[in-house]
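// run 5 | inverse folding | seed 20
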């Protein structure tokens, strides 16, 4: 059963990677700014074919590794996908065209408001605070082992019914919820607009809003899932299924409302086509050139502050454990 499910995951990822280049903006090809007609040329098709061959070869290798009951199959597929992308990016660079030197801004565009405002952003913390009070008053009613993670075969990680264990679990949920809400806020207000006028600008506003909504769904999920885990532990496994369906639905709309044309960042700022590093760009978030959503500007100091705030506590916890 596990083999069938994991194989389905690999095949689904391979299909997604297969079609992903066709969902990007027409003037971008493997994170390189090109003539919109380039992808239909012989060189463009040859690059795409080579990329897809590497992706599917990685998928087949991952399935064979999984069949041998080795846990490295996930890393093997991810490595193969990155090799395919980096190779295609490198082969596309000789066909790059210079960016436009003139930018236009639509001054009549309506002001953008964060979905739901601060109430939607911070209400999961209120829910978790109320849960902490509830758990304290109903502590003896909690199960001795509380499931907090589910795999293919059911619950596989638990916390003991102790005040410290419950407090740590709620603290982790609150931190994760705030992190996703913060990224949603940052995408809305600390990202550079690519398309600034016309229909493309409207499409990009929808795209930015959908990204923020998806992250808010995850933020709210952390709080709701914590409530279900402590109050209804026998039904807690349903939470991940519900949020997965919601995220897939939002991703479908993201594919439709992708970023518009007009990215003026130099190609040299996209290292290997994946990492954005531009000291001249004050934005913290930037729309991906390959893939769906936003990525960090690694030349912005706030990016590293966020990374340290997230990774340092995790590393300390692993070391202490």
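// decoded
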């Amino acid at each position: 059963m596990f083999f069938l499910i994991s194989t389905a995951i690999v095949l689904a990822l391979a299909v997604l990677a297969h079609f992903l280049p066709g969902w990007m903006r027409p003037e971008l090809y493997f994170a390189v700014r090109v003539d919109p007609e380039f992808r239909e040329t012989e060189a463009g098709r040859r690059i795409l074919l080579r990329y897809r061959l590497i992706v599917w070869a990685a998928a087949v290798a991952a399935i064979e590794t999984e069949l041998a009951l080795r846990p490295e199959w996930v890393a093997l597929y991810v490595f193969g996908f990155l090799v395919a992308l980096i190779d295609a990016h490198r082969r596309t660079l000789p066909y790059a065209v210079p960016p436009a030197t003139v930018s236009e801004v639509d001054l009549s565009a309506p002001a953008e408001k964060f979905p739901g405002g601060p109430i939607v952003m911070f209400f999961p913390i209120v829910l978790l605070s109320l849960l902490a009070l509830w758990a304290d008053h109903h502590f003896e009613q909690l199960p001795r082992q509380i499931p907090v993670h589910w795999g293919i075969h059911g619950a596989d990680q638990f916390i003991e019914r102790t005040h410290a264990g419950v407090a740590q679990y709620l603290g982790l949920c609150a931190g994760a919820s705030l992190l996703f809400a913060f990224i949603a806020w940052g995408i809305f207000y600390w990202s550079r607009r690519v398309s600034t006028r016309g229909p493309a600008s409207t499409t990009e506003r929808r795209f930015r809003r959908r990204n923020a909504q998806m992250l808010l769904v995850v933020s709210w999920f952390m709080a709701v899932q914590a409530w279900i885990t402590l109050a209804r532990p026998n039904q807690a496994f349903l939470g991940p299924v519900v949020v997965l369906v919601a995220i897939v639905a939002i991703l479908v709309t993201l594919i439709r409302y992708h970023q518009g044309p007009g990215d003026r960042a130099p190609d040299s700022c996209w290292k290997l086509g994946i990492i954005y590093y531009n000291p001249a760009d004050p934005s913290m978030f930037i729309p991906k050139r390959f893939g769906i959503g936003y990525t960090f500007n690694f030349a912005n100091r706030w990016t590293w502050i966020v990374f340290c705030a997230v990774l340092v506590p995790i590393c300390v916890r692993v070391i202490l454990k």
